[in-house]
Amino acid sequence: MIFSEILTSPLLLVLLAVVAFLYASVGHGGASGYLALMSLFGFSVTFMKPTALVLNILVSAISFYFFYREKKFEWKLFYPFALTSVPFSFLGGMITIETHWYKIILATFLVLAVARLLGLFGDEKINRKPLNMSLALGIGATIGFLSGLIGIGGGIVLSPVLLLLGWANIKQTAAVSALFILVNSVSGFFGFVTRGGELPASSSALIAVVLTGGILGGYYGSKKFNTHTLRTVLAFVLGIAILKLYTT
Question: Which spans are transmembrane here (predicted)?
Fold first, then answer.
């Protein structure tokens, strides 16, 4: 899809803004949502991966800024995951996989994204538990590699892990996930570029709408903002994308 075709697809642009808003509101960059929409609208894998990484970088940076400003970020919850995720994300970004397997892996991540949006991982635990360093390092490496491989930041995996293990509350999880997504996306993109990959020029048409949605989502999400209905709608859209990915 070229620049002019993107600009004449208002539904795509509106949905991208909504995705950016919702994901930024929970500390995510939105790559899984962008990838789902691009798949639905017939973009090629060569366009999807680098574009999703760049959009992810922009929105996660915005989201982190708002959550950090609200003093929700904890360094000790972040660095163990980042230590291993960053180099492994770079490694994953260097690898190009066959389209069929790319879609299967992406669809699997989208299932996690839908579960997260619908709250299927449960509420935050009342009593926080101490972080297990060895386990955190292993989780970071795994998420980082898969993130670089398909072009996401890994927040849709890290967030439920932090909540399920009782290592952080919801706001802390959002702040940590935002920076985690940012550094992984940057690392994955550099890995992609190192192997000769390029960002499609027409992807610039998506940046303005995504930035707008990301700024609004980061602002309202860092406060007390309920987006339950919109998240349900987004989960439905992602569900359609999952079916499309698994059946094509």
Answer: 51-68, 77-95, 101-122, 134-167, 173-193, 205-222, 228-246
Q: What is the DSSP string of 21-59?
A: HHHHHTT---HHHHHHHHHHTT--HHHHHHHHHHHHHHH
Query: What distance in Å separates the CA atoms of residue 184 and residue 164, rounded to the nearest whole number?
Result: 22
Tally the domains of the chain. Answer: 1
Residue 3 lies in a domain: no
In a domain, 100, yes or no: yes
Q: What is the pTM of this model?
A: 0.79
80 is in which domain, residue-wise?
8-247
Q: Is residue 2 part of a domain?
A: no
Per-residue pLDDT in tens (0 to 9) along the chain, 248 residues: 555 555 557 888 888 898 888 888 877 788 888 888 888 888 888 888 888 889 999 998 988 888 888 888 889 989 999 999 999 999 988 888 888 888 888 788 778 777 776 777 655 555 678 889 999 999 999 999 988 888 888 887 788 788 778 888 877 888 898 899 899 889 988 888 888 888 887 777 788 889 999 898 888 777 665 556 656 666 776 676 677 677 66
